[in-house]
Amino acid sequence: MAQPRASSANTRFAQFKLVLLGESAVGKSSLVLRFVKDQFDDYRESTIGAAFLTQTIALDENTTVKFEIWDTAGQERYKSLAPMYYRNANCAVVVYDITQAASLDKAKAWVKELQRQANESIVIALAGNKLDLATANPSKRAIETADAEAYAKEAGLLFLETSAKTAENVQELFTAIARKLPTDQAGPRRGAPGIRGVDMNRTPQTANLNGQGCAC
Ligand code: GTP
Ligand code: MG
């Protein structure tokens, strides 16, 4: 991955808060683990509470975007915590499992909640995960791509089918989000909601605040 050029006067650095939402076991933590560490676990423990990680991507040679990622727990008992994580989020990835029809209904409910209660300008992406399962065995697919795509278009969402397992479309998902965010307002010592000043000494890093759920 390209790193920011500290010597370039044109280099822009923008920082955004991203939240992942979706039913338990759809692969939220796995998508984050793939994005942040390029790894995958066949047996992941369900997230407890939420996990925090960061990842930095170079959009082009002049623009660097850092995501502060809140990977929430999908189990019902943690649902009431979600507003704490999506409040002030600049972007959200709402995940469903393309082999589980009910998981899309749950994703739609999250989208509705975000559109009602999150930042007005929030960028929302819908990710249909576990694409590898349908590629290996088409009969496992429960949600047609065209149906999810039509819903996403109507609701104004970015949309991609992904596989945390094979990495298909994972980088593309986060890059597409970064491209929709207002990076043009970023720059040295210029502030805007969700966008902070340049700190070229920063390097990509990861962290897990609770150490219990996502071991990313
Ligand atoms: P909660 O933390 O309970 O909300 O679940 P989660 O959405 O974070 O799901 P998690 O990432 O823990 O993944 C659940 C299970 O699905 C794990 O066994 C993963 O290995 C598996 N999994 C995740 N993504 C994929 C994928 O793209 N393909 C396949 N085949 N399995 C996946
Ligand atoms: Mg998880």
From TrEMBL:
What GO terms fall under cellular component here?
endosome; plasma membrane
Question: Could you tell me which Gene3D superfamilies the record lists for this protein?
Answer: P-loop containing nucleotide triphosphate hydrolases
**GO:BP terms for this protein?**
protein transport; vesicle organization; vesicle-mediated transport
Membrane-spanning regions, if any? none
Residue ranges of region Disordered?
A: 184-216
Q: Which Pfam families match?
A: Ras
Kindly indicate whether the keyword Membrane belongs to this entry: yes
Source domain of life: Eukaryota
Which residue spans adopt a coiled-coil conformation according to this UniProt entry?
none
What is its membrane topology?
Lipid-anchor
Q: In which residue ranges is the amino acid composition biased (Low complexity)? A: 186-197
Query: Where found?
Result: Cell membrane
List UniProt keywords, sorted A-Z.
Cell membrane, GTP-binding, Lipoprotein, Membrane, Nucleotide-binding, Prenylation, Protein transport, Transport
Q: Which GO terms describe its molecular function?
A: GTP binding; GTPase activity
Composition bias (Polar residues) maps to 202-216
Instruction: Indicate yes or no for the key word Cell division.
Output: no
Similarity comment: family membership: Belongs to the small GTPase superfamily. Rab family.
Per its record, how is this protein called by name?
Answer: GTP-binding protein of the rab/ypt
Organism (species): Arthrobotrys oligospora (strain ATCC 24927 / CBS 115.81 / DSM 1491) (Nematode-trapping fungus)
